[in-house]
Amino acid sequence: MVELKSTAEIEGIRTAGRFVAEVLASVRQRAAVGVTLRELDAHAHAMITAAGARSVYLGYHPSFGAIPYPGVLCTSVNDAALHGLPSDHVLADGDLLSIDFAAEVGGWVADSAVSFQVGTPDPRSARLIEVTERALRAGIAAARPGGRMGDISAAIGAVGRGAGLGVNADFGGHGVGRTMHEEPHVPNLGTAGRGIKLRTGLVIAIEPWFMDGGDDYVVDDDGWTIRSADGSRAAHAEHTVAITARGPVVLTAPARPVATGTGGGATAD
Ligand code: MF3
Ligand code: CO
């Protein structure tokens, strides 16, 4: 069943979303050459504890996982696209890291992911990340009352395909609320005008992930880590978004403008 949220409930998810954004920004700041994925996970875990929040990843055990999820972050490096376990991998110059994080604050969950390069960036990975972020923006722009789920899926898929990237419809977005994974599913490929009607009060995670090669993926023996089948790099970007009468509202945006030193005045919404 697809559950619609009230304005007050959406504000609850926004509170969780601000915390999720804060943790992602802090983890990103710490991600540098020589740092391990486990250290990043421990840092996020400490922030959860300090905030009185709750991890929705730790111990999560869907049927495909060989073990319950062992961390609070997904840390996917280079050819890993999704669900990379926080291991002792030491971040190396040029690594492409995707961090996916969801947490519960005050009974509401928000879910977001970001991809970036560590150390010296390479232009090809920069383009992969840029296209993935553009697909996320296109998906968000299509999240309007009166539209259909296929509008979001088609917008995401068109950006990935248009850039010649590998796109796979498995592991797309999802409803978010009291729990991390609710109905409906938000596929990363689809046909505009098809699928369920988008209504005011629908809150969904939109999460394109693309590969810099073919469309196929493989799964590690742990049942978790999703990698490109051809070893190409992958990127992932995700926001939790509310569909409102005034259009899409990103609930996992930072609470304050990010200090850039240039006096930019951008706000969260
Ligand atoms: N946050 C991911 C998603 O966007 C799921 C993470 S799976 C977990 O759907 F096991 F790590 F929790
Ligand atoms: Co998600």
UniProtKB/TrEMBL annotation:
Species of the source: Cellulomonas aerilata
The UniProt record lists the Peptidase M24 domain at: 11-245
**Which co-factors does it depend on?**
Co(2+); Zn(2+); Mn(2+); Fe(2+)
Cofactor binding remark: Binds 2 divalent metal cations per subunit. Has a high-affinity and a low affinity metal-binding site. The true nature of the physiological cofactor is under debate. The enzyme is active with cobalt, zinc, manganese or divalent iron ions. Most likely, methionine aminopeptidases function as mononuclear Fe(2+)-metalloproteases under physiological conditions, and the catalytically relevant metal-binding site has been assigned to the histidine-containing high-affinity site.
Question: Lineage of the source organism?
Answer: Bacteria, Bacillati, Actinomycetota, Actinomycetes, Micrococcales
What name does this protein carry? Methionine aminopeptidase
Would I find Lipoprotein among this entry's keywords? no
Q: Where does substrate bind?
A: 83, 181
Q: Can you tell me which residues bind a divalent metal cation 1?
A: 100, 111, 238
Reaction equation(s) it catalyzes: Release of N-terminal amino acids, preferentially methionine, from peptides and arylamides
The record's listing under CDD domains reads: MetAP1 (cd01086)
Which top-level enzyme class is recorded in the Swiss-Prot or TrEMBL entry? hydrolase
**Does Metal-binding appear among the keywords?**
yes
GO MF, one term, reads: metal ion binding
Q: What is its EC number?
A: 3.4.11.18
The function of this protein is: Removes the N-terminal methionine from nascent proteins. The N-terminal methionine is often cleaved when the second residue in the primary sequence is small and uncharged (Met-Ala-, Cys, Gly, Pro, Ser, Thr, or Val). Requires deformylation of the N(alpha)-formylated initiator methionine before it can be hydrolyzed.
The UniProt subunit note reads as follows: Monomer.
Q: Name one GO cellular component term.
A: cytosol
Q: Where does a divalent metal cation 2 bind?
A: 111, 174, 207, 238
Cite a single GO BP annotation.
Answer: proteolysis
